[in-house]
Design a protein that fits this description.
alpha+beta, Aminopeptidase, 5-stranded antiparallel sheet, 14 strands
């Protein structure tokens, strides 16, 4: 992202300055957004994942965030008053989809139209067949009413699930599963990328090849390979314990590869809890996770300007920076 600001990028809004932000301001914006979101979660009796022991810190997250923001078509705007940051919004762009990464307004400035002004700056006009829109937002009435006028509609839910690591290990050791376990192996990078290229667009409705090329440098790919053929499912997992995204040919194929990734993390995990994102249509996976003892931590909505064809075969990105 360029650090140059043009005159048209600066907008005056009732004493506030709405402007395109520099790439060097990303850390400041993320600290602001995290503080606002943490405050909102605690007000609802939810302990933020980011604030938990072993939770993500900036050093672990910064590479992914900077990579998303550096993509062609990505946008990053902030609103300030007297030099104080009071709102921030960011998007990234895939080949045919603009995805909102965050739209956050300081609570003392909420209900003044700032969120709408930020989205209007990022998402002017209406979505088109060539460039759709997608966002994952908290399930509150205010959040939904903010996004719906910009051409997106709810397509599914995304649940943030957690379980204490000790309980997960205990439950997995005691599991009795009737069917033969599907063979899960570490995939070669080329095989993983080919599988994503084959399956992702049919699941999400759009492709993200450059995102998976980045994950290939940062994460290991696990795959369900039956009979030595093409993988039936693939899941990225990081050394820091991030599980996802994952995709599968059938909804039930998602279960063994995600459990294998969780097993891998739990075996070396120093954090007290495991966390994972799960789409609500992924019934087979949700059922298995609930039987293991995963609890819903907070729900979100997936909003899109076009249908997402098969979210029952998909596990979202962790950390929850995007779908």
């Amino acid at each position: 992202m360029s650090d140059e600001l043009s005159q048209r990028d600066t907008i005056d809004l009732a004493g506030c300055e709405l402007r395109t932000a520099r790439g060097s301001e990303l850390r400041r914006a993320r600290d602001f957004a995290r503080a606002v979101v943490d405050r909102a979660l605690r007000a609802r009796g939810i302990e933020p994942w980011y604030g938990a022991p072993g939770g993500r810190d900036w050093e672990r997250e910064s590479a992914l965030q900077a990579f998303l923001q550096a993509q062609p078509g990505a946008r990053f705007v902030v609103c300030e008053r007297a030099g104080e940051l009071i709102a921030v919004a960011r998007t990234t762009r895939f080949e045919t989809m603009d995805e909102a990464l965050e739209v956050v307004v300081a609570p003392e400035y909420s209900h003044r139209g700032l969120g709408r002004a930020l989205l209007a700056e990022l998402w002017s006009g209406t979505p088109t067949p060539d460039l759709g829109r997608l966002a994952v937002v908290p399930g509150t009435t205010a959040d939904l009413n903010l996004y719906l006028p910009f051409g997106v509609m709810p397509v599914a839910g995304r649940w943030h699930l957690r379980i204490p690591v000790a309980l997960y290990r205990e439950r997995r050791a005691a599991e009795v599963v009737d069917e033969d376990p599907a063979p899960v192996h570490v995939l070669e990078t080329g095989t993983a990328l080919e599988t994503w290229a084959e399956l992702e667009e049919g699941v999400l409705g759009y492709a993200r090849p450059w995102l998976h090329e980045w994950f290939a440098r940062d994460r290991v790919a696990l795959g369900v390979v039956a009979g030595g053929g093409t993988p039936d499912a693939v899941c990225w997992v990081s050394a820091e314990g991030d599980v996802g995204p994952a995709v599968a040919r059938r909804p039930e194929d998602l279960v063994p590869v995600v459990l294998a990734a969780l097993d891998r993390v739990a075996s070396a995990c120093e954090a007290p809890e495991l966390a994972i994102q799960c789409t609500t249509p992924a019934w087979w996976l949700l059922r298995r996770l609930r039987l293991l003892g995963f609890r819903l931590h907070w729900p979100s909505w997936i909003l899109s300007s076009v249908p997402c064809p098969a979210l029952d075969r998909y596990l979202p990105v962790q950390p929850p920076a995007l779908l």
